[in-house]
What we know:
Helices cover 78% and strands 0% of the residues of chain A. By secondary structure, chain A is mainly alpha-helical.
Amino acid sequence: MLSFEKIQSAVFITIYVSIFSTLIAFFLSxxxxxxxxxxxxxxxxxxxxxxxxxTSIPPVCAGLLVYLLISRSGPLGWMEILYSPIAMIIAxxxxxxxxxxxxxxxxxxxxxxxxxxxxxxxxxxxxDIIFLLFSNKTNIxxxxxxxxxxRAISEYGAAAIVGGSIDHFTRNMTATIALxxxxxxxxxxxxxxxxxxxxxxxxSISLNFLNKNND
Amino acid sequence: MIKVNNISYTINGxxxxxxxxxxxxxxxxxxxxxxNGSGKSSLIKIINKIIIPxxxxxxxxxxxxxxxxxxxxxxxxxxxxxxxxxxxxxxxSKVNKFYFNLFKLNKLKKRKFQNLSEGxxxxxxxxxxMSYEQDxxxxxxxxxxxxxxxxxxxxxxxxxxxxxxxxLSLHNMSLVKKFxxxxxxxxxxxxxxxxxxxxxx
Lengths: 215, 201
């Protein structure tokens, strides 16, 4: 049976959790990505390899990791955020942060020496060089944001483990599709699935458009 | 003007330059030529103190790197004019528009830089670099992507510049023959010829 309320609630939870996780992961990726890309330090290579290997972390494993951290007996259990949207946001950050930071490091690491050499000879300060590089890479940031958001909204597993799939509170679109389909309510699954496919297609088209503009 | 003494430079254990000795003479055009990967760009960057060599010294009037034309110059996602003015804005210097006008870039100045052809982009890079007046002009393959006419216009005007020392890397031997006072030929990071142009041709 189709329930407009259920659809509305699932879409709303999915979008706001994904937006928050994407923005926080992006903010962290920008700060740490730039620092790792620009500065040379002893553990740089192992850190980049580790982050790169985390890009393919299975969402359920990320969910399990966050669950162990925030469950009542975990080190962050005192925060009492298990089965809340905050827990879902943290789990999604664990999944998308490695993807976003790896892309930022790769792009900035390639371009920084080119900018540094030329702008240094122009008499620019390190601050000027970083500012010009930062302001000249907006297309990459949009690509990174869209990729992170696309991964976050389509993720199933992590958010379900730490969110608990509580109706009207933490039940997002992917969790609703899985639950309602298993209950035989295929029509609701189809509607939500169509909305999800539409959103991911929209992101994919935007990415292609941006890549075309970058060429 | 610049004296390079016994420079050697390696990247990841690979010899890029070995035991380089040369002089860049004041008010002359010195051309570094050689095959791709012979070390021309690295040598130019070392002479301009952008790269620090593993061995050797450079005696130069300049203690810091000075603006030069790079082989792959940076561009901003802005207009042609914004890209042209980048150097003078950073240097807070007067803008010399001679090459900007010579290449007739004024009519394209509001165009988005990314929409220009490769040849037009190179004209902007040359004009940007030449907009800042200095006694030493360092150019790394300035004629790349330029059509024959623009190439001729540029080199003819460059050779007429008075009281300037020019150091450039070039592939095109007919241009080397026509414009160089002094020729340095690099092969696999070593100098195989270093003398006045008339002795080479």
